[in-house]
Amino acid sequence: MTRLIDIAHAAGVSEATVSRVLNGKTGVNEATRLSVLDVARRLGRDVGPEAVGSGPLVGVLVPDLDNQVFAAWAERIEAELFERGASTLVAMRARTVEREREILQRFLHCGVEAIIVVSGHHAQHRGPVEHYREIVAAGTPLVLVNGVRDDLDAAFLSTDDEHAMRLTLTHLQDLGHRRIGLAVGDEHTWPVREKLAVFDEVAATYPAGAWATAFTDFSYAGGYEAARDLVSRDVTALVCGSDVMAAGALEALRALDLRVPEDVSVTGYDDVFWAAVTNPPLTTVRQAVPSLARAAVRTALSGGRDSRRPPRTEVVVRPQLIVRGSTAAARQTPEDADG
Question: Are 120 and 70 in contact, with CB atoms under 8 Å apart?
Fold first, then answer.
């Protein structure tokens, strides 16, 4: 068996520290504990459950795992929690506020020490927030991702949707597109409202009717439906609110015998793992999921009644535009020719 002194020398700590870690004792900071465990494993030492411990339990609620971006959120949050010695309790499909409240209460009954909610009902404009206040009142740190409410004291972490829309529209305008369509989901949700505000602002600088919006949902079928609607209004580019929508839009355009990007350019949002292998590869906005997940976990584990953190915090992270083959110079429309 690998000796304590060997692990201590490799980890740069004392034998006493190694002993405390391997026996699951307190008094060792988390970074040192993880370093010692990593060295011990690499040197062949059997690290038992008493050393690893269960750590704090954190509840994580995501809309579903069908959409790859939510699967990515769940995976990254779990990985960040694991690295910090914490365990994860995952729930999904809170289709109603009542269902979401029940899930959050179950989290509390299971003894979670913090809760992270990704794209939950907090993203609904003027939706009820009492069930969130119950969590905060219980002294449980609450981190809400991608959606901000002014009437709730919690930790909010979001992708900068305003910046994302400006990046996308600037890219399309630089390619000569003057008739652009926006395909998004529920207009009462926070991310859609952020995108729509910028889209309407820029659209107002063009002739009335040149830019169009289709409200469906963030699904493949929603993107398919929106694309057929928008191209009937002579747009030369489609801005989709998710990569799943963009995939549906690509299929709709193929069904209409329209070429991408020669006839219509298409952009997505999220940069899920398959966005680079669509036909053509999808130009899309990449959310900083790893950075946001890390920040969400750090915020969740540093909260609580004894925390010095303010009751309300907001962090906004700017995304990247990833340019691929689904966008190109605009085709000339009859209106362009007349002009």
Answer: no
Residue 50's Cβ-count burial label (10 Å; 0-12, 13-18, 19+) is exposed
Give the Cα separation of 315 and 148 in Å (integer).
Answer: 10
Q: Give per-residue pLDDT as tens, 12-42.
A: 999 999 888 888 776 777 678 888 888 988 8
How many angstroms separate the CA atoms of 155 and 29, rounded?
Answer: 25
C-alpha closest to that of 144 among 130, 158, 161, 133: 158
The amino acid that residue 327 corresponds to is T
CA angle 91, 297, 93 (to 5 degrees): 15
Give the integer Cα–Cα distance in Å for 165 and 326.
Answer: 17
Taking a C-beta distance cutoff of 8 angstroms, is the pair 121, 114 a contact? no
Query: What is the pairing mode between strands 320-322 and 283-286?
Result: antiparallel
pTM score = 0.81
According to DSSP H, which parts of the chain are helical?
4-11, 15-22, 30-42, 49-52, 68-83, 97-109, 130-137, 161-174, 190-203, 220-231, 243-255, 289-301, 334-338
